[in-house]
Design goal:
It is built from five helices and five strands. By secondary structure, it is of the alpha+beta class. The protein folds into two domains: 77 residues, Ribosomal protein S16 (S16 Ribosomal Protein, Chain: A, 2-Layer Sandwich); 47 residues. The radius of gyration is 38 Å and the shape is elongated. The chain starts with a strand and ends with a helix.
């Protein structure tokens, strides 16, 4: 379940006000919410009364992975929600990732063995092709030149 922090519209026509609420991302805008964090009244003339917010609960939901909408994020910045919050992403411990294990060593040994066998087969194919070419030249050349062409093909 993905949790989002967004605004839920309340108020009458031409006089909007919003609840800042935590909801499942699949629920509709004005639908069911998990928790209400505060109110936002954009029409109010007094800047202090325009926004009321429970900062501790907002920090709690952000630390648990809730994603705020763009408008809510700007309100949070204005209200100081992100201050005193550890915003760095915690990295998981991956210290043993590069450790050498028996499985890793045996896998690398098998890969090296396969590579050497492949190289040996390649060398055999090349040697066989060279021998075929030398035999064809020997068959086509007169008797005196056969020894010379065999020496050239061997190089």
């Amino acid at each position: 379940m993905s949790v989002v922090i967004r605004m839920k519209r309340t108020g009458r026509r031409n006089r909007p006000s919003y609840r800042i609420s935590v909801a499942d991302s699949r629920s509709p805008r004005d639908g069911r919410t998990l928790e209400s964090l505060g109110l936002y009244d954009p029409v109010c003339k007094d800047a202090e009364k325009q926004t009321t917010l429970n900062v501790d609960r907002a920090r709690h939901w952000l630390s648990n992975g809730a994603q705020p909408s763009e408008t809510v994020r700007s309100i949070f910045k204005r209200m100081g929600v992100y201050e005193e919050m550890d915003t760095e992403k915690k990295k998981r411990d991956r210290s043993g990732r590069k450790a050498k294990t028996k499985t890793t060593e045996s896998r690398r040994a098998d890969q090296a063995a396969r590579a050497s066998k492949k190289e040996a087969r390649r060398e055999e194919r090349i040697a066989a092709k060279r021998a075929d070419v030398a035999a064809q030249k020997a068959a086509e050349a007169p008797d005196g030149d056969a020894a010379e062409s065999a020496d050239e093909a061997g190089e």
